[in-house]
Amino acid sequence: MNTTNAKPGGTKPNKLTGLGRGLGALLQDSENRQAKPSPYESISTMTEIGLEQIETNPFQPRTRFDEEALNELADSIRVQGIIQPITVRQLGKDHYQLISGERRLQASKLIGMLHIPAYVRTANDQQMLEMALIENIQRENLNSIEIALSYQRLITECSLKQEELGERVGKNRTTVNNYIRLLKLPPVIQASLRDTRISMGHARAIINIDNPDVQIKLFNKIIEEDWSVRKVEEAVRNLSMVDEAVPARKITLPKQEMRSLQFKLSSMFGTKVMIKADDKHTGEIKIPFTSQEDLDRILNVLNYSA
Protein backbone atom coordinates (compact mmCIF):
# COMPACT_ATOMS: atom_id res chain seq x y z
CA MET A 1 0.00 0.00 0.00
CA ASN A 2 1.51 3.29 -1.06
CA THR A 3 0.36 6.06 1.25
CA THR A 4 2.45 8.87 -0.18
CA ASN A 5 -0.56 9.92 -2.28
CA ALA A 6 -2.92 10.05 0.70
CA LYS A 7 -5.17 13.10 0.51
CA PRO A 8 -4.38 15.87 2.97
CA GLY A 9 -7.10 17.33 5.08
CA GLY A 10 -9.68 15.49 7.12
CA THR A 11 -8.63 14.13 10.44
CA LYS A 12 -11.09 11.29 10.73
CA PRO A 13 -9.44 7.87 10.30
CA ASN A 14 -10.75 5.91 7.35
CA LYS A 15 -11.44 2.22 8.14
CA LEU A 16 -9.84 -0.08 5.61
CA THR A 17 -10.42 -3.64 6.69
CA GLY A 18 -11.36 -5.91 9.60
CA LEU A 19 -8.72 -8.08 11.22
CA GLY A 20 -8.68 -10.62 14.02
CA ARG A 21 -5.01 -11.24 14.51
CA GLY A 22 -3.21 -10.89 17.82
CA LEU A 23 0.17 -9.43 18.78
CA GLY A 24 2.01 -12.60 17.83
CA ALA A 25 0.78 -12.35 14.21
CA LEU A 26 1.93 -8.72 13.99
CA LEU A 27 5.26 -8.82 15.74
CA GLN A 28 6.72 -12.21 14.92
CA ASP A 29 9.07 -12.90 12.05
CA SER A 30 6.63 -14.17 9.44
CA GLU A 31 9.33 -16.21 7.74
CA ASN A 32 10.35 -18.18 10.80
CA ARG A 33 7.39 -18.53 13.21
CA GLN A 34 3.68 -19.23 13.11
CA ALA A 35 1.20 -16.92 14.81
CA LYS A 36 0.51 -17.63 18.48
CA PRO A 37 -2.52 -16.54 20.52
CA SER A 38 -2.12 -13.02 21.87
CA PRO A 39 -2.56 -12.23 25.57
CA TYR A 40 -4.07 -8.89 24.54
CA GLU A 41 -7.33 -7.73 23.01
CA SER A 42 -7.33 -8.45 19.29
CA ILE A 43 -7.13 -5.69 16.71
CA SER A 44 -10.46 -4.82 15.12
CA THR A 45 -9.59 -2.42 12.31
CA MET A 46 -6.79 -0.95 10.31
CA THR A 47 -7.11 2.75 9.64
CA GLU A 48 -5.23 5.64 8.08
CA ILE A 49 -4.28 8.23 10.69
CA GLY A 50 -2.84 11.69 10.30
CA LEU A 51 0.77 11.82 11.46
CA GLU A 52 0.03 14.96 13.48
CA GLN A 53 -2.50 12.94 15.52
CA ILE A 54 0.11 10.43 16.76
CA GLU A 55 2.32 11.06 19.76
CA THR A 56 5.50 9.05 20.33
CA ASN A 57 5.68 6.06 22.64
CA PRO A 58 6.94 7.05 26.12
CA PHE A 59 7.87 3.41 26.70
CA GLN A 60 10.07 3.19 23.59
CA PRO A 61 13.08 1.09 24.73
CA ARG A 62 15.44 2.51 22.09
CA THR A 63 16.61 6.07 22.35
CA ARG A 64 19.12 6.05 19.48
CA PHE A 65 18.29 5.47 15.83
CA ASP A 66 20.84 5.18 13.05
CA GLU A 67 20.36 8.25 10.86
CA GLU A 68 21.65 6.58 7.70
CA ALA A 69 19.38 3.55 8.20
CA LEU A 70 16.43 5.88 8.85
CA ASN A 71 17.08 7.72 5.57
CA GLU A 72 17.29 4.40 3.72
CA LEU A 73 13.93 3.38 5.20
CA ALA A 74 12.47 6.74 4.15
CA ASP A 75 13.68 6.16 0.57
CA SER A 76 12.11 2.70 0.60
CA ILE A 77 8.79 4.06 1.87
CA ARG A 78 8.85 6.77 -0.80
CA VAL A 79 9.03 4.06 -3.46
CA GLN A 80 7.14 1.14 -1.92
CA GLY A 81 4.86 2.81 0.61
CA ILE A 82 4.27 1.44 4.13
CA ILE A 83 4.27 -2.35 3.88
CA GLN A 84 3.83 -3.05 7.62
CA PRO A 85 1.40 -0.67 9.34
CA ILE A 86 2.36 0.85 12.68
CA THR A 87 0.41 -0.02 15.85
CA VAL A 88 -1.21 2.62 18.06
CA ARG A 89 -3.68 2.98 20.90
CA GLN A 90 -6.41 5.61 20.94
CA LEU A 91 -6.23 8.14 23.77
CA GLY A 92 -9.13 10.33 22.67
CA LYS A 93 -10.90 11.68 19.62
CA ASP A 94 -8.32 12.02 16.83
CA HIS A 95 -5.56 11.44 19.40
CA TYR A 96 -3.35 8.34 19.30
CA GLN A 97 -0.19 7.08 20.97
CA LEU A 98 2.37 4.94 19.18
CA ILE A 99 2.86 1.37 20.43
CA SER A 100 5.27 0.09 17.79
CA GLY A 101 6.74 1.35 14.54
CA GLU A 102 8.84 4.31 15.68
CA ARG A 103 11.24 4.04 12.73
CA ARG A 104 8.40 3.81 10.20
CA LEU A 105 6.72 6.85 11.78
CA GLN A 106 9.91 8.95 11.78
CA ALA A 107 10.82 7.91 8.22
CA SER A 108 7.31 8.84 7.03
CA LYS A 109 7.72 12.29 8.54
CA LEU A 110 11.05 12.70 6.75
CA ILE A 111 9.38 12.38 3.34
CA GLY A 112 6.44 14.60 4.23
CA MET A 113 3.67 12.02 4.43
CA LEU A 114 0.40 13.25 5.92
CA HIS A 115 -1.22 9.90 6.82
CA ILE A 116 0.03 6.45 7.75
CA PRO A 117 -1.74 3.06 7.93
CA ALA A 118 -2.10 1.88 11.51
CA TYR A 119 -3.60 -0.90 13.58
CA VAL A 120 -5.56 0.46 16.56
CA ARG A 121 -5.61 -1.62 19.72
CA THR A 122 -6.57 -1.28 23.36
CA ALA A 123 -3.65 -1.47 25.80
CA ASN A 124 -2.79 -0.26 29.30
CA ASP A 125 0.63 1.12 30.23
CA GLN A 126 2.12 -2.27 31.12
CA GLN A 127 0.88 -3.80 27.90
CA MET A 128 2.27 -0.80 26.03
CA LEU A 129 5.70 -1.43 27.51
CA GLU A 130 5.55 -5.15 26.82
CA MET A 131 4.42 -4.73 23.22
CA ALA A 132 7.02 -2.03 22.56
CA LEU A 133 9.81 -4.19 23.99
CA ILE A 134 8.76 -7.31 22.09
CA GLU A 135 8.32 -5.43 18.83
CA ASN A 136 11.70 -3.85 19.38
CA ILE A 137 13.42 -7.19 20.00
CA GLN A 138 11.91 -8.81 16.93
CA ARG A 139 12.06 -5.94 14.46
CA GLU A 140 15.21 -3.99 15.23
CA ASN A 141 18.85 -4.88 14.72
CA LEU A 142 19.64 -4.88 18.43
CA ASN A 143 23.01 -5.75 19.92
CA SER A 144 23.29 -8.44 22.60
CA ILE A 145 23.23 -6.02 25.55
CA GLU A 146 20.15 -4.21 24.24
CA ILE A 147 18.40 -7.58 23.89
CA ALA A 148 19.50 -8.59 27.39
CA LEU A 149 18.22 -5.32 28.87
CA SER A 150 14.92 -5.70 27.04
CA TYR A 151 14.54 -9.25 28.36
CA GLN A 152 15.33 -8.05 31.88
CA ARG A 153 12.77 -5.26 31.65
CA LEU A 154 10.10 -7.70 30.45
CA ILE A 155 10.83 -9.92 33.45
CA THR A 156 11.01 -7.18 36.11
CA GLU A 157 8.60 -4.52 34.82
CA CYS A 158 6.04 -6.75 33.10
CA SER A 159 6.21 -9.55 35.70
CA LEU A 160 6.96 -12.23 33.12
CA LYS A 161 8.66 -15.50 33.96
CA GLN A 162 11.45 -16.67 31.68
CA GLU A 163 9.21 -19.35 30.19
CA GLU A 164 6.47 -16.80 29.43
CA LEU A 165 9.05 -14.42 28.00
CA GLY A 166 10.44 -17.19 25.81
CA GLU A 167 6.96 -17.84 24.43
CA ARG A 168 6.45 -14.14 23.69
CA VAL A 169 9.70 -13.74 21.76
CA GLY A 170 9.94 -17.24 20.28
CA LYS A 171 13.05 -18.27 22.24
CA ASN A 172 13.62 -21.08 24.74
CA ARG A 173 14.44 -20.32 28.37
CA THR A 174 18.09 -21.27 27.96
CA THR A 175 18.56 -18.66 25.23
CA VAL A 176 16.77 -16.02 27.30
CA ASN A 177 18.93 -16.88 30.34
CA ASN A 178 22.14 -16.72 28.29
CA TYR A 179 21.31 -13.14 27.31
CA ILE A 180 20.35 -12.08 30.84
CA ARG A 181 23.60 -13.53 32.24
CA LEU A 182 25.50 -10.99 30.11
CA LEU A 183 24.27 -8.28 32.49
CA LYS A 184 26.46 -9.82 35.23
CA LEU A 185 29.62 -8.96 33.27
CA PRO A 186 31.69 -5.92 34.37
CA PRO A 187 30.43 -2.65 32.81
CA VAL A 188 33.51 -2.26 30.58
CA ILE A 189 32.82 -5.64 28.97
CA GLN A 190 29.10 -4.90 28.59
CA ALA A 191 29.96 -1.60 26.89
CA SER A 192 32.30 -3.34 24.46
CA LEU A 193 29.64 -5.92 23.66
CA ARG A 194 27.13 -3.12 23.10
CA ASP A 195 29.58 -1.32 20.79
CA THR A 196 30.35 -4.62 18.95
CA ARG A 197 34.03 -4.59 19.93
CA ILE A 198 33.50 -8.17 21.07
CA SER A 199 30.85 -10.70 20.05
CA MET A 200 28.21 -12.62 21.96
CA GLY A 201 30.47 -15.68 21.64
CA HIS A 202 33.34 -13.89 23.39
CA ALA A 203 31.05 -12.73 26.18
CA ARG A 204 29.46 -16.15 26.72
CA ALA A 205 32.92 -17.63 27.22
CA ILE A 206 34.02 -14.89 29.62
CA ILE A 207 30.88 -15.24 31.76
CA ASN A 208 32.00 -18.73 32.82
CA ILE A 209 34.79 -17.11 34.87
CA ASP A 210 33.69 -16.18 38.38
CA ASN A 211 36.36 -13.59 39.19
CA PRO A 212 35.60 -10.15 37.65
CA ASP A 213 39.29 -9.21 37.73
CA VAL A 214 40.18 -12.30 35.71
CA GLN A 215 37.30 -11.53 33.35
CA ILE A 216 38.69 -8.06 32.68
CA LYS A 217 42.25 -9.36 32.18
CA LEU A 218 40.98 -11.85 29.63
CA PHE A 219 38.87 -9.16 27.98
CA ASN A 220 41.94 -6.93 27.60
CA LYS A 221 43.79 -9.80 25.93
CA ILE A 222 40.89 -10.25 23.51
CA ILE A 223 40.98 -6.57 22.54
CA GLU A 224 44.77 -6.21 22.39
CA GLU A 225 45.45 -9.40 20.44
CA ASP A 226 42.17 -9.70 18.53
CA TRP A 227 41.38 -13.16 19.85
CA SER A 228 38.82 -15.35 18.12
CA VAL A 229 35.93 -16.86 20.06
CA ARG A 230 37.56 -20.28 19.86
CA LYS A 231 40.77 -18.95 21.38
CA VAL A 232 38.83 -17.34 24.24
CA GLU A 233 36.97 -20.59 24.92
CA GLU A 234 40.30 -22.43 25.01
CA ALA A 235 41.75 -19.87 27.43
CA VAL A 236 38.75 -20.23 29.73
CA ARG A 237 39.06 -24.03 29.67
CA ASN A 238 42.71 -23.70 30.62
CA LEU A 239 41.85 -21.71 33.71
CA SER A 240 41.42 -23.75 36.84
CA MET A 241 37.68 -24.42 37.09
CA VAL A 242 37.93 -27.41 39.44
CA ASP A 243 36.96 -26.85 43.08
CA GLU A 244 40.15 -26.01 44.98
CA ALA A 245 38.96 -28.12 47.90
CA VAL A 246 39.43 -31.30 45.85
CA PRO A 247 43.07 -32.50 45.87
CA ALA A 248 44.47 -33.01 42.37
CA ARG A 249 45.43 -36.63 43.13
CA LYS A 250 41.76 -37.52 43.60
CA ILE A 251 40.74 -36.44 40.12
CA THR A 252 40.43 -39.58 38.01
CA LEU A 253 40.03 -37.70 34.72
CA PRO A 254 43.03 -35.77 33.37
CA LYS A 255 42.85 -32.20 34.67
CA GLN A 256 42.51 -30.72 31.16
CA GLU A 257 39.66 -33.08 30.32
CA MET A 258 37.92 -32.27 33.61
CA ARG A 259 38.15 -28.55 32.92
CA SER A 260 36.82 -29.03 29.42
CA LEU A 261 33.87 -31.08 30.68
CA GLN A 262 33.09 -28.56 33.39
CA PHE A 263 33.23 -25.71 30.87
CA LYS A 264 30.84 -27.49 28.50
CA LEU A 265 28.34 -28.27 31.25
CA SER A 266 28.48 -24.69 32.55
CA SER A 267 27.71 -23.39 29.06
CA MET A 268 24.89 -25.91 28.62
CA PHE A 269 23.11 -25.10 31.87
CA GLY A 270 23.80 -21.37 31.97
CA THR A 271 25.38 -21.56 35.43
CA LYS A 272 28.71 -22.67 36.89
CA VAL A 273 28.72 -26.47 37.19
CA MET A 274 31.09 -28.05 39.75
CA ILE A 275 32.51 -31.56 39.38
CA LYS A 276 34.18 -33.63 42.11
CA ALA A 277 35.61 -37.10 41.63
CA ASP A 278 37.97 -39.41 43.55
CA ASP A 279 40.23 -42.36 42.78
CA LYS A 280 37.39 -44.81 43.50
CA HIS A 281 35.49 -43.53 40.47
CA THR A 282 32.84 -41.86 42.61
CA GLY A 283 31.93 -38.21 42.85
CA GLU A 284 29.27 -35.67 42.16
CA ILE A 285 28.18 -32.98 39.73
CA LYS A 286 26.69 -29.85 41.30
CA ILE A 287 24.36 -27.64 39.27
CA PRO A 288 23.38 -24.65 41.47
CA PHE A 289 20.09 -22.81 41.04
CA THR A 290 18.78 -19.66 42.69
CA SER A 291 14.99 -19.96 42.38
CA GLN A 292 12.17 -22.29 41.41
CA GLU A 293 12.18 -20.68 37.99
CA ASP A 294 15.92 -21.29 37.65
CA LEU A 295 15.40 -24.94 38.65
CA ASP A 296 12.62 -25.28 36.07
CA ARG A 297 14.97 -23.91 33.43
CA ILE A 298 17.65 -26.47 34.32
CA LEU A 299 15.11 -29.30 34.30
CA ASN A 300 13.98 -28.10 30.90
CA VAL A 301 17.55 -28.43 29.61
CA LEU A 302 17.56 -31.99 30.96
CA ASN A 303 14.18 -32.64 29.26
CA TYR A 304 12.90 -33.71 32.67
CA SER A 305 9.17 -34.11 33.24
CA ALA A 306 7.55 -35.14 36.49
UniProtKB/TrEMBL annotation:
Return the SMART domains for the record.
Answer: ParB
Q: Does the keyword DNA-binding apply?
A: yes
Asked if the Swiss-Prot or TrEMBL record annotates the protein with the keyword DNA-binding, the reply is yes
Which GO biological process categories is it annotated with?
Answer: chromosome segregation; positive regulation of sporulation resulting in formation of a cellular spore
Q: What is a GO molecular function of this protein?
A: DNA binding
Q: Which residues form the signal peptide?
A: none
| Record keywords | Chromosome partition, DNA-binding
* Annotated region described as Disordered, given as residue ranges: 1-39
PANTHER family, from UniProt?
CHROMOSOME-PARTITIONING PROTEIN PARB-RELATED (PTHR33375)
Output the NCBIfam families linked to this UniProt entry. Answer: parB_part
InterPro entries named in the record: Chromosome_partition/occlusion, HTH_ParB/Spo0J, ParB/RepB/Spo0J, ParB/Sulfiredoxin_sf, ParB_dimer_C, ParB_N
Provide the Gene Ontology terms for cellular component. Answer: chromosome
Its protein name is: ParB/RepB/Spo0J family partition protein
Which one Pfam family would you cite for this protein?
ParB_C
Indicate the family of this protein: Belongs to the ParB family.
Give the species.
Fibrella rubiginis
**Ranges for the ParB-like N-terminal domain?**
47-137
